[in-house]
Amino acid sequence: MTTALVDADIVAFKAAAKTMDRFDGELIGDPKAAIREAEHIMKMWMLHVKPTSIIMCWSCTTRKYFRHDIYPSYKGNRTGERPPCLPDVTSYLKDKYRSVTYRGLEADDVLGILGMSPTLVNPVAVSIDKDMQTLPIKSFNPDKMVRPLRISVGMADRLMFKQSLMGDSTDGYAGVKGIGAVKADKILDSCRPQDMWLAVRQAFLNNNYTEEQAITMVRLARILRAEDYNEEGEVRLWLPRNQGTWMRPSALNTTSSKVESKPSTTSSQSVETSQVTKPLLSPTSSNTSADIKEKDTPKGISKKQSGTSTASKAKSIKSTKKTKQTKRKKDDHES
User: Fold this and answer.
1) What residues contact 301, with CB distance under 8 A and at least 6 apart?
2) Which residue, 274, 259, 278, is CA-closest to 305?
3) Class of residue 30 by CB neighbours under 10 A (exposed 0-12, middle 13-18, buried 19+)
4) What is the mean pLDDT of the chain?
5) Cα(114)–Cα(55) distance, integer angstroms
6) Is residue 162 part of a domain?
7) Tens digits of per-residue pLDDT, 128-178?
8) CATH number for the domain including 144?
9) Range of the domain at 14
10) Residues 251-275 pLDDT 10s
11) Which of 26-35, 48-57, 86-95, 99-108 has the weakest average pLDDT?
């Protein structure tokens, strides 16, 4: 049995972008064609994973991530137009599959956290993002692999440090100017695994950067792991030689991020929707809607549901009494 953890952001964007066109200076798209493309992508991605359960992992809908809190220019270079059918595809995928989102986190972080969950059945992160290689989990890249592979902690750490040296132009952080893949490998090849941070730190210092800047680059490069996130929605920022420091993402102060929890089967099931910040803790070996129970639904929602239930019961009792009274009057009249 296998639980596929899918990078839903990529699936939705690729599908919507493929059907995008420009007409008379305006971006257009075909929602039905985009949804069909999304299903095709899902089918091809799942071929070698053969999951018994699927969880779609999404980025926080606020699009304000904890990395913005520590590095304001994070992803500041992303100014491209979004495919017009993206909302249609997103809505479709969230309705069909079980979906998980954590406030202030990106889809990669959700994959990293759930990929190390002891309660999920053989979790496999499915994504074409290279950042998956920096996580000590089992992952599968549909574009480059023929079967899922598990990354060791040592290799994941090495690739994380390599990314911090190189930077990531896509995400808008530079690392050390002039250091690319070859130089980064040379720096890390020359040291023992336990000394990788010291080598990274020295490379930054040798190029007139501070240790604080080096730490920030590692924090940006590190995709969150299970131990980096707690049930209060706080993120543990990486620090060398200790357990790190906890921070509260500013996105937690918003209320627009939702988690939709739904069994991932081919049959039609009910959807549970709630606003949450806690990690997914329940096992997903069965195919019932009780597989995942999010425990921190806002009190306002639960009270509203409770109030509705109470009112419904009162109305039912009142109706029953009225029916009995009417019948009693009818019997008296006939007698």
Assistant:
1) 274, 275
2) 274
3) middle
4) 82
5) 10
6) no
7) 999 999 999 999 999 999 999 999 999 999 999 999 999 999 899 999 999
8) 3.40.50.1010
9) 3-151+229-274
10) 998 754 344 444 433 333 222 333 3
11) 26-35
List, for residues 308-328, the tens digit of each pLDDT value: 444 444 444 444 444 545 545
In this structure, the strands spanning 138-140 and 149-150 are: antiparallel
User: What is the SS3 assignment for 259?
Assistant: strand
The β-bridge relationship of strands 272-274 and 259-261 is antiparallel
In a domain, 242, yes or no: yes
Q: What are the DSSP E strand ranges found in 231-271?
A: 235-237, 245-247, 259-261
The answer on 250 and 322 residing in a single domain is: no
Q: Please give the Cα distance from 44 to 38 (Å, whole number).
A: 10
181 vs 89: CA distance, rounded Å: 36
d(CA 45, CA 143): 9
* Distance in Å from the first CA to the final CA of the chain: 70
In a domain, residue 98? The reply is yes
Question: Domains in the chain: how many in total?
Answer: 2
**pLDDT score, position 264:** 38
Is residue 259 domain-shared with residue 335, that is, in the same domain? no
Helix (H, G, I), strand (E, B) or coil at 38: helix
